[in-house]
Every structure is written in C-alpha cells, then in structure tokens.
Predict the 3D structure of the following.
Amino acid sequence: VKVIDVHPEELLDRELHGVLSDEQRNLLDTHLAGCEACRMERLLRADFAVEASRAGEADMQSFVLGALQRAASAEAVSAATQLTGSAASVSALGSGVLTRRRLSASLAVACVLLIAAGAAASRSSWVARMFHVTFGEASIAASRGPEHRVLARTRANAPQEAAEVRSADARTAPRSPVLPAVAPAQPAPPAAELIERPPPVVPETLPTLSPRREPSATRKSTGSLENTYRPAPRTARIANVRATRTLAAAAPSTKAPAASSAALELAPTADPNVSVREPAPDPARVAQQAAAAALFEQANRARRAGKLDQAATLYESLQRDFAGSPEAKLSFALSARMWLDAGNAFAAYGAFERYLATGDRALREEAMTGRALSLERLGRKSAADAAFAELLQAYPYSSYAPLAKKRLGQD
Amino acid sequence: MSLAKAAALGDTAATTHLLRKLAPEMARVVRGVMGPYTADSDDATQQALVALIHALPAFRGECAPAGYACRIAFRTALAVRKNVQRRRRLADASVDTDTFPSGESPSARGDAARRMQLLRSLLEELPAEQAEAICLRTVLGWSLEEIAQASGAPLNTVRSRLRLAKEALRAKIHADPLLASELGVES
C-alpha cells in the first residue's frame, strides 16, 4: 500500500471544521501534494457547497406536497386495482353458470363488497389519510388532473406552508464551511501562517465592513481605510433593521384612525414628521427580535475582543436559532471577515458565500470583495478574477473598484 | 428521531413535518447527483420524496432519519440519472445533461462544472456502496462516522469504499487532460 493510498479522511474533516493543528496541517499538506484524488475531493466539496448555496431558493414546499399527492395517488390506484380484480373475479364466477336471479344477487353482493372494501381501503391507507389531512377534498379532485396543474394549485393554496418550509430550508443550509482548493502551483501556507499569525498584510487593505452605501459616481476610494473592525456597538445596519421594522409596524396604522385622517391622507406615508399610532406589537416576535439582537451584540463584542472561537460559536448559535433574521444574515459576513483577518481563508470564503446566498444586500459589496480576496489567498486565481469581475460589474463605482481593476489588470 | 418513528408508525402529521425537514437535504443530494439545472432533477427530488414516504414504514430507527433519507435520495437520483443518460444517448449522443443556463458559466464556474460532471459520471460507474460513500462525502460534506452511521456499515468498510472510489476518481482525473492540468497531475 502506497502512502497516498491511505487517505487522511479525519484530517480532511478536521480541516473542514477549522480544528487542524500545525502538525496535522503539515501531514495533510504532505499527503495532498501527492494525492490528486484528495485534492479533487476538497475542490468538489467546495463546488457542491457553492452549488447548494446558489440553489437554496428552490421551493421545497411544492416538492413535499407533490410527493404526498403522488404517494396518495399511487395508494388509490393500488386499491382500485385490487377492487377491480375482486369484482372481475366475482363476475367471472357468475358468467354462464349462475341463473339470472343468482347473477343479480351476486352482482348486488359484489357491489356491497366493493363499497365496503373501498371504505375500508380509504380508512386503512395512512397515505390516503395523510392526503386528506393535508389537502382536503378539493385537492383530491385536483389530483386527477395533470400533475403540473395539481402542483400549481397546491402551491397557490398553501402560501403559508411554503413560507414555513422556506424558513426551514434556510435552517438546513450547507452546514460546513466551504473548502476551496489549494492551487498546485502555489503550495498551501503552513498552518501557523494561516491561523496563528496576526492579520495578514495584503497589498491593498480591505476596508472595514460597513453597511452598503448606494453606488455613486462621486464615490472614491478612501485609501486609508482601516483593516480592523470598527467598534460598532449598534451598527448602522441594526439601526436600519430597526427603522425598517418600525416603518413596517407603522405602515398599517396609517389607515386606521379616521379622526386624524385629514392630514394623514395628504401626507406621504413615510414622512417622519407624521405621527402615527403604532399597533401593539406581537410580544413573542418582539422578544425573539430582542434575543437575536442581544446574541448578535454579544458575538460582536467577543469578536472585537479578539475571542474568535467564542465569537464563531455565538455567530453559529445566531445562525441556527434565529435563521432568517437580519442579524443572522449579517453574521455570515461578519464572521467571514473575522476569518479572513485571522488568516483562515477557507472559512472566510465559505462564510462569504453563505452571506451572499442569503440575498441580503446590506454588506453585499463588501462580501463580494471579501470573497474575491479569499479566493486570491487560496491561490484560486481564475476564480478570484471572476469574483473581482463580478464585483466590478455589480458595483462599478465601488470604493473597491480600484482594487478589483488592479487585480484584473485594468488600471 | 421521535418524529421519524411516529412517521414510520403512520402518524400523518409527523410524516408531513418530517418530509418538510428532510426535503432540503434530500434535494441537495439529488442535485449533487443530477446537477442543479437539469430538467429532470426536480422530478427526481419528488421521486425521492415519494420513495421516502413508501420506505418510512420500514424505518427501524437504526440510523439518523437524515441519513436514511439521503441514502434513498441518492439511490433514486442515481437511478433517474442513469435512465436519463441512457435515453439521451439513444436520442443524441452529443447531448450533455449537465447544462447550465446562459450567463451562468464564467470560467471559474466552468471549472467547477467540469469537476462536478466528472464526479457525476463516476457515480454511474462505481458500485452503489462506493458511489454512495463518495457522494455523501463530497456533496454533503459528511464525515466517515456520519456515513458509517447512515449506511449501517463499519467505519473501516466505509474507509475502504472511499479509498476504492478515490482510486477510480484518480483514474478519471488522469483521463481528463484539462482537469489533470488544473490539479497539477502529470498525464
């Protein structure tokens, strides 16, 4: 058995979870240098993780409902086949042998049996019961039509369930950080360099993550942007989130009081000077939002204090327990930047990808830049160039545009 | 687990809830095998869910429900993929099933697409157990222990399956000059 035939699967797993020691890193690098299959496996894991994050918008609800319908239809067909068979055998028994009176009596008995068996089948079939529970009679009728029509109808009938499943879908997003490849021409830096050294010096500093500004022709690169996190006990993003929530809560109330409606009807809804009565917020929802904000704040404090492991754990809790919340979405970008500063480009790349997959736009520009830099540090030149090109296309006037142009040789 | 056991006993609400929980990961496996943009991958996802519904009464709780479901998803998707490939080969030998929509394939994504396509074609050629092991490892990023638990095989058996699958993968890499060059492999 050659050395490269014993694949260090455990080391690959440890690398994936970011818990590889220096010694283990050396062992893994030695193996990878000679094993293209393991290099390929790492690349594939990254590829599939990216693919999964891009395909995260799929409407799982329609799949689930469609599957339940098809299973129920199959049960129904099976039951009908059995019943047809028994009826046919009863008929065959009667043909030519029985007198007309006996034949009539037999047919009557067959009908009774048919009805009884049908009733029993519909009661005994748990799939059919599930079908009834899920869709009701209307959908059963619909299931007789073409499948796409049924799916469309169930989709239309179940918006609330679709929303539930979408949130469940978000919770089951790729659970592992993406593991991009180490380019063969550029060997992986030793673990000490990746993990234990202070934030690496890069030719151009990556500005502090901050909420996205609107692209503007007058916007210029500051050139002196700090390479550390700005203390932000209450980030502007959170302020935006809260403002959005307040506006969202206030919006319906503009319709309510008729007494003061004269001024309100003429005034724009979003005018901050207009005082509107807010409806009573849902206490459970408010408590959940407060808990998410508190956890986010706690994680940020840990990150600013340099307690990266603690911060990572808290961010993961936030992403797991408050999936879909604005804070959870932002936490992907913040943890990504944290890992990038710490020299862990593997984890950074995965987290940037996950942030971008959320569709959130507050830090999209920064995340696209961070993703490109992560790829660059991983030695994936072509992927990094594509990422910089994507950034330039999306934000041509970004403060990161000069950096992207320089990387692409366009300046 | 309790949800899965309830579903296995025919609890309708539990079954529906379980399906909702497992569907995203099953879809991920199916897309890993089929490719996310193939016309048949959505159908395969639904077929996998139907197969899970039918297999639920046989679930004995010896492994995690997600493992059970993902194995079903893998087997279903691979069968569908083989059928599709066969059908298309009959219709037109030049058709590539791993197609991406226009505008979705810059060079970096093209590299990834080629790698994933290579793995998908490898899955068709490998014995089912080896294909399942390498698929769960690469598509879902599962550890050896997780694969062993899901498949009910000893850890060393899973390790051996992966080793054999990687041998086949290595041969595939050497047979693809572009990929071999990208990975720095002397052909």
